[in-house]
Design brief:
Chain B is mostly helical. Chain B has helices at about 1-30, 35-55, 85-125, 125-140, 145-155, 160-185, 190-195, 200-210, 215-235, 250-255, 265-290. Chain B is built from eleven helices and no strands. In chain C, helix 6 crosses helix 7 (about 175-185). The chains are: A mainly alpha (about 325), B mainly alpha (about 300), C alpha/beta (about 350).
Chain lengths: ~325, ~300, ~350
């Protein structure tokens, strides 16, 4: 198990190199450079100042040189300091991260609480009214842009009813409600569909018949036997939704002015704040890969087959070692 | 001579089979109520697209300072915006952007992704390893942020939005086509093609891919809808088609300012995004049911 | 004495047959599967009777309706598409088909339980085998979790699996071991009737004999009545007291083991025997039954076997009635209306 986790973490390295290079190259390709961005903000600057800035950022060297410098700093754990705000990228990210985590997990809880029962009910009543109703709901939910859902929520709850704040972060838990519901709804649609289809698959299986044949109540057949097997695809769906939430929360965070990492990235791209964009994307990628790893580890706890797969690799090694010893004796 | 005739009949047969397979899919799509609805919506969108293509583009820019923020009425079914522009015209003209982005970016993603995925699945080993790492890298950058970075590098335009959204969809196509190729590549007819000395390229594109196409087609339809949403989101955040163009996401971004006093400015573009994406999702579902033999009764 | 109440009490009875001994009584069962375009006529009027401690073999080809019959006894036919159109099934004097869900839960596993065909898929892959056995015990007996698990361990030992493996999961067992677990689940609450749906057909030949022996021993030990569903006449000869030959949803011949094996009457039964390899006289040629099982959505009129039957005449297309050959032997074949008719058992040589 530990070997598996270590291997996955080692695989992060090429991903980080690839991601950082692609993003770095794209940012370099954008018209204008850091110097322009700084100058645009600073107002009056002399030619010497410009030269100094350019030299400080190695703008007279090749792109690969600058990338090399960046990666060298990255290896030492230094994500750099924003040229625009003058703040450490690491600190800014860590300051924003809890907000995104709060929003994502609230959304996940809301989404799962609605989606899983809905998917189960739909699967058990496949083809009937409640199934059709659920499938219309999920299809429409999947087809609506998240920002539109957010705007409708704002319009109804803040505009018409006036009971919740429009946006921002200053009203405590009341600020959280709308963005969490908005992300949660978009998560519900895909998770409910996944739950339905994996339940349908499981409901056809022979072991449910075995369970019924020994007098297990229908309720227990569903809760214990069916759900325990349906969890894996559901968790996959929820896991990738969570990844999408964490990494792609740009839209929801922008609509609700929620100070998370998605909005940080969007603002940084807008301000041509190269250092912050790089740092944010790299850290988001790490986060993304870690969540996926977490999901994979979760499987092992749910499915004994996968668990023994992980175990076997290390067990076999031990066994062969023991056999060698036995042979030597 | 007889050999030639034989190969001709084989070719005819395979063509016949192909046609009947398509016919089969079409029939089961038509029986599926949802897919039928999707096809009807898509058909209507294409009619709107063709009609608006023959109408003067100035219609969407014509301002009327005396009819600003008019709520929907007979003259302006979708109302007017802050410059008094007819939202009805604008929304209908916007169809071209969403369809172009949807088909363009999903097409781009499919072209690159399926090719790479097919190579990865067919050759395996190092090729597979390299392509899959590349796919992982692309997949782990959040789509919207990647889109923003690409658009900021290349500039705001329809073509660049298509590229930005298309690139983000590449890993989906790589994975699905690789998985699909893997199920086909070890079958005997591939070996047979090898044995008669066919080139790898020909085997992949003439024999392996067509037999593993079903999941890719379903994925294409789903990605099409997803791409339209991603592009609309980019536009909404200001990284899409620039403002005077009647792109639905852009229109919603502009209308957002007047959200509380003129909500209709966002409702109609929103509905159009939704039904367009809905159409592709419905067709995707229908295709999945039609193409998946496991689900057939 | 009230028949219904005492039918299931374990009590020594004289060997002469009385109604009290009957633990399973299936009467004129009709099961159809109604699909979108067509209706599969799986079971078309099956009647069976099983007495305490007796073993009845239900023999037929794949698709003859054997499994549907067994599932009906547990009222486990999946609806839709399955519909039990007609018939009555009584287990220990209780009518199954009219039971509520609660009543059904009570008898399933307790009065009647089932061993399923494929041990690979009949066990829940994410629940330990001990728990899967213990669940059955908990469903029917007032025990706490620990006691149930303890008993599950006993059951495992009974079927020849070390108690310690109760904590393991199905994927850690071989096919034969899994089938032992399935048997342990089925026998956990000492059922009066055990339905075994081809319990050995998914197993290796060497394991088959072991499992059959095991089932036979357990049956003797517990006095369970066994409905052995199989297509293997060898299995029938080994374990059954009586035999029902099933074809296209009907029982075409029904009798004691001797009736069926030594006094074969139905042409289909004959065909089954002729297509068996003969281990003693190796010279014997196999004579396969020509043709295939009829499409269950389009059954031929009259005798369903008539299109494949080498004795068939025009009158075989008429409705068939059950003919009593002797007190224990019944038959569904109108050819015997002709008093001179008899089958020739291999003599034709094909």
């Amino acid at each position: 198990m530990i070997r598996f986790i270590l291997k996955r973490i080692l695989l992060l390295i090429p991903v980080i190199i690839g991601v950082s290079f692609i993003v770095f190259a794209l940012l370099e390709a954008a018209p204008g450079d850091v110097a322009d961005a700084i100058i645009a903000r600073a107002g009056e600057v002399t030619a010497e100042d410009i030269e100094a800035i350019r030299a400080a950022h190695n703008l007279d060297r090749s792109m690969f040189y600058r990338y090399g410098v960046y990666m060298l700093n990255l290896i030492q754990g230094d994500l750099g300091i924003s040229d625009i705000t003058g703040l450490s990228v690491w600190n800014t990210f860590m300051q924003r991260l809890p907000n995104t985590l709060l929003l994502s997990f609230s959304a996940l809880i809301i989404g799962m609480a609605v989606a899983v029962p809905m998917g189960i009910i739909a699967a058990r009543n496949a083809g009937k009214l409640s199934d059709n109703f659920a499938s219309i709901f999920t299809l429409v939910g999947m087809s609506m842009p998240v920002f539109w859902i957010g705007l409708i929520l704002i319009q109804v709850f803040s505009g018409n009813l006036g009971i919740l704040p429009v946006a921002g972060f200053d009203h405590g838990w009341r600020s959280l409600i709308l963005p969490a519901i908005c992300s949660g709804l978009s998560l519900t649609a895909s998770t409910a569909r996944q739950t339905r289809s994996s339940m349908l698959e499981v409901l056809k299986s022979d072991y449910l018949r075995t369970a019924r044949a020994k007098g297990t109540s229908e309720d227990m057949v569903i809760r214990k036997h069916a759900l325990s097997n349906a969890w894996i695809p559901i968790i996959t769906a929820a896991g990738s939704s969570l990844c999408a939430q964490l990494a792609g929360s740009v839209v929801v965070e922008s609509v609700f002015a929620w100070p998370g990492i998605g909005r940080l990235a969007a603002e940084a791209v807008f301000a041509r704040d190269t250092t912050t964009v790089m740092g944010t994307i790299i850290l988001t990628t790490v986060l993304y890969v870690l969540v996926q790893l977490l999901v994979d580890v979760l499987y092992a706890f749910i499915d004994p087959r996968i668990k023994s797969q992980y175990m076997n690799t290390s067990k076999k090694k031990k066994k062969t070692g023991m056999e060698k010893e036995a042979a030597a004796a | 001579m007889s050999d030639l005739r034989k190969s001709e009949t084989v070719a005819e047969e395979s063509q016949y089979k192909k046609r009947s397979q398509m016919l089969d899919i079409w029939h089961s799509l038509r029986r599926n109520k949802g897919a039928l609805l999707g096809i009807i919506i898509l058909g209507m969108l294409f009619i709107i697209l063709i009609v608006t293509l023959f109408m003067p583009y100035e219609m969407v820019l014509r301002m009327n300072p005396f009819h600003r923020y008019t709520p929907p009425n007979w003259q302006y079914p979708f109302g007017t915006d802050f410059m008094g522009r007819n939202q009805f015209h604008r929304v209908l003209f916007g169809t071209r952007y969403s369809l172009a982005i949807g088909f363009g970016s999903a097409g781009l993603g499919a072209l690159v992704g399926v090719t790479l995925g097919a190579f990865a699945g067919y050759f395996g080993k190092l090729t597979d390893e390299i392509i899959m790492r590349f796919s992982d890298i692309l997949a782990s950058i959040p789509g919207i942020i990647l889109g923003m970075v690409i658009v900021s590098a290349l500039g705001n335009s329809l073509r660049n939005v298509i590229i930005a959204v298309g690139v983000a969809s590449i890993p989906f196509f790589i994975r699905i086509s690789r998985a699909s190729i893997l199920t086909v590549r070890n079958q005997e007819f591939v070996e047979a093609a090898h044995a008669i000395g066919m080139s790898h390229f020909r085997i992949i594109f003439r024999h392996v891919l067509p037999n593993g196409l079903s999941p890719i087609i379903v994925m294409f339809s789903v990605i099409l809808g997803m791409s339209i949403i991603t592009a609309a989101s980019l536009s909404f955040l200001g990284w899409g088609i620039p403002a005077p163009a009647p792109e639905w996401g852009t229109m919603m971004n502009v209308g957002r300012v007047d959200m509380l006093n003129a909500p209709f400015l966002m409702t109609f573009p929103g509905i159009f995004i939704m039904i367009t994406v809905l159409a592709f999702n419905l067709i995707g579902d229908g295709l999945r049911d039609a193409l998946d033999p496991k689900l057939k009764k | 004495m009230d028949v219904n109440e005492t039918a299931c009490e374990v009590e020594a009875r004289p060997p002469n047959e009385t109604a009290d001994d009957v633990v399973l009584d299936v009467n004129d069962l009709v099961v159809h599967y109604v699909l979108e375009k067509e209706t599969v006529e799986a079971v078309n009027g099956v009647s069976l009777r099983l007495k305490k401690g007796e073993t009845l073999g239900l023999v037929g080809e794949t698709g003859a309706g054997k499994t549907s019959t067994a599932l009906s006894i547990l009222n486990l036919v999946q609806t839709p598409p399955g519909v039990i159109k007609n018939g009555s099934i009584s287990v220990c004097g209780q009518e199954v088909l009219t039971m509520t869900a609660k009543q059904l839960e009570k008898i399933r596993g307790k009065d009647v339980s089932m061993i399923f065909q494929d041990p690979m898929t009949s066990l829940n892959p994410v629940i330990s085998v001990g728990e899967q056995i213990a669940e059955s015990i908990r469903n029917h007996e007032t025990v706490n979790t620990a006691e149930a698990f303890e008993k599950a361990g006993d059951m495992l030992e009974l079927v020849g699996i070390p108690r310690a493996r109760a904590f393991e999961y199905p994927h850690q067992f071989s096919g034969g071991m899994k089938q032992r677990v399935v048997i342990a689940i089925a026998l956990a609450c000492n059922p009066k009737v055990l339905l075994a749906d081809e319990p050995t057909s998914a197993l290796d030949v060497t394991i088959q004999a072991q499992v059959l022996d095991l089932m036979h021993d357990l049956k003797e030990k517990m006095g369970t009545a066994l409905l052995m569903i199989t297509h293997d006449l060898g299995v029938v000869a080994k374990v059954c007291d009586r035999v029902a030959i099933m074809y296209a949803g009907r029982i075409v011949e029904y009798g004691t083991l001797t009736d069926i094996f030594n006094n074969t009457m139905h042409p289909y039964t004959e065909g089954l025997f002729n297509s068996l390899p003969d281990a003693k006289g190796r010279k014997g040629k196999l004579i396969p039954i020509p043709g295939l099982m009829p499409d269950p959505t389009k059954l031929p009129s009259g005798c369903a076997f008539q299109p494949r039957c080498r004795y068939a005449v025009e009158s075989c297309k008429d409705e068939q009635t059950v003919r009593e050959v002797s007190g224990t032997h019944t038959l569904l074949c109108s050819r015997y209306d002709d008093p001179g008719f008899s089958i020739d058992m291999k003599k034709s040589g094909g």
